[in-house]
Every structure is written in C-alpha cells, then in structure tokens.
Amino acid sequence: MAEKKVLTISVSDVIPGMVAARDIYSKNEQLLIGKDSVIDANSIARITFFGILSVAIYADKDRETDELEEDTPFETLAQKKAFEQFNTEYHESISDIKGKMNQLLKVGDNIDEKKLIQDVESVVISTGTKYQVFDMLHYIKDYDDETYNHSLNVSMICNVFADWLGMSSYEKKYLTLCGLLHDFGKLLISKDVLRKRGKLTEDEYEVIKQHPLKGYEFLRNKKIHESVKRAVLLHHERCDGKGYPFGMKVNEIDPYAAITAIADVYEAMTATRVYRKGLSPFRVIKLFEEEGRQQFNPIFLMPILKNLVETYMRHKVKLNDGREGTIVMINPNELCRPVLMMGNEFLDLTKNRELFIEEVF
Question: Which SS3 state, helix, strand or coil, does residue 177 take?
Fold first, then answer.
C-alpha cells in the first residue's frame, strides 16, 4: 500500500475535511487534534485560537479548491442596501490603506495617522451603529489580499472595543491604529513564504514568526504613538508566557497590545476566508470563556465578551440540530449559552448541553 503524501501547510489554508497527518499540540503540550482526525471548523478555530502556525495534513489529489460560494442571507431589501453601502466604503478604504502602506514601504515617510484612522472610522460609521459592525464583517467574502483585509477588520473591531472599555477619544484612535498596523511586519515578508501552499521549512516558519519584530523595527523611528508600536511588537504575547517573541506574562504586556490580541484572534476565527466559512461567534466566545482567561487579560476579555454577546440579542440563530430560534436572554455565567425563543417556548442552552449555536443570522 502506497504511503500517503504529507504536506505541511499554513493554518490559514486548512479546509474542513482535511485529515491531520500528525498530532497537533498547543505550546502547553495539550493535544488539540489527534493524528488521522478529520479537521472540521471547530478544529480550525481551536488551532487558530492557540496560535498554531502550521499543520501537517495528508495530501488529497481529489480535493477541489474552488472558492467558497454562498448567498448572503439578507432578509430585507434595506439590509441588502445597507451592506452594499458598507461594502463600497470597505473596499474604498482597503484600496486607500493599501496605497498608503505600499508608499510607506517604498519611500519610508512618516505615516499619516489621522488619515488612516479616518479611513477606518468611515467604514465603521457606514454600518449605522457599532453593533452592526460584526454583522457586516460576517458578510465580507472577497479577499484580494488577506493581510490588508484582516488588518482593517481588526482595526474596526478595536474601534468598537474601545467604546466598550470606556476609553477616551484619543485612546480609541490609538487602539484603532493598533489594529490597522498590528500585522505590518507581514508586509516585510516575502509573499512566496507568507502564502506558500506547499511544505514550509523550519526556517520559513521562523521567518513568519518574526513579523512582530520586523514590523516594530520598521516603525520604531516613525512618528507613531509608542503604544501602537508596542502593539505591533507584542500582539502575539500571551498572559501565560507562552506567546512570542519574548514570552512575556500578563503584567508585562502593554494594554493596547493585550486588547489588539483579542481582536486579532476573534477576527481570525470568525471571518470568512476564500476557502472556508467563518466560525459561529458563539463557538469562539465558548473558547474564550473556557481557555482564554489564561491567555488573554481578563480585565479586558470579560467586558468584551459580555458586549459581544449583547450585540447578538434578538438575532436569529441556527442550532447544531438544525432548528432555528431567536436570542432573547443572556446567561451571565455562561455567555456562549443564551436563552432562545423557539416558537412559543423558551430554550435555555445551559440546560441543554448537547445543543449549541452553529450560525447567527
């Protein structure tokens, strides 16, 4: 029997249905996915959450690599028109931000902080209310350049987080810029390495892990607020000391970097990419509740999670058994398991452990 071919690929290229060719462990030596396990959406979220950069999978010659195609589920014409307006603002901002970043890379001039922040705020304003930011981002599917799209998404999320955390207008602007620039170092890495679909060498993985340092070194002497520079450098640090590049612990990590890290991970797990659908926000919130308190500063994490759940009040949802309902009440001790209205009856997910929210409309 011929031995199966094994490929090592970036987590961003993993598609549900692939099979793990080796055990996948967290930095704490916790088994996340066993060898020969079929990888599903929850598995992808889990390895993304724990900061795994790559996985070994069995090559599948028959696998289709067509882009994900799915109709956007707008219930009303008004919702569709609102998204169209948002989509226009979004892609105009992406184009503008990309141009400014490329100019910075080529010429090395100082960054126009004010204009970059305005680009982000114009997209946030186009959603109508801050609560609709997450709905709109859920519908975005066409990614011309994942680094720029991800950075804009994280920046918008940071902009909302700042309000939830009671930050001043100046702090909010700095946090918005943290989100926009946090992955700047990836622009300094060869795209052949960053988006390589085949096997990466150990040296290539180390190059990718250097993006916080590369970004910081490039921006260090620019006229940018120091907290923004520290967010670029430290957004992959974790409170348990298992992050990189320095292995810092909770009291050593700059608050702006700590908040940006939460936005970064949340976006990476919930956003729809070219090859796979984003995970349900409630699946992500569950991971944050169960395992995030050791990795992310709970001073910021808990109020953010509470507000995230509240943004989905009155939203229709689909459960893992296919039934649909409406979120009508939040369980403060288990945010990922709200109370639903199912027809004329209430369903408390804390009392129905086999059920879970798979999709939010």
Answer: helix
Q: What is the DSSP string of 193-205?
A: HHT--SPPPHHHH
Task: Report pLDDT digits (tens) over 280-319.
Answer: 899 999 999 988 989 999 999 999 999 999 999 999 999 9
Burial 282-312 (b: 16+ CB within 10 A, else e): bbbbbbbbebbeebbbeebbbebbebbbebb
**Which tokens belong to 228?**
């923004």
Tell whether omega for the bond before 245 is within 30 degrees of 0, i.e. cis.
Answer: yes
- Please give the mean pLDDT across all residues of the chain: 86
Residue 263's alpha-carbon distances to 7, 162, 266, 267, 321, in angstroms, are 30, 11, 5, 6, 30
Amino acid at residue number 66: D
User: For the residues of 252-319, what is the DSSP string, one character each?
Assistant: GS-HHHHHHHHHHHHHHHHS--SSSPPPPHHHHHHHIIIIIHHHS-HHHHHHHHHHHHHHTTT-EEEE
Helix/strand/coil for 329: strand
DSSP state of 346: E
Q: Is the pLDDT of residue 130 over 90?
A: no
Q: Nearest-CA neighbor of 193 among 181, 180, 211?
A: 211
What gap in Å lies between CA 300 and CA 18, rounded to an integer?
35
pLDDT, tens digit (0-9, with 9 covering 90-100), for 162-192: 999 999 999 999 999 999 999 999 999 987 7
Write out the two tokens for 294. 């050791």
Kindly state the average pLDDT of the residues 6-13: 78
Q: Which residues contact 138 (CB under 8 A, 6 or more apart)?
A: 270, 272, 278, 360
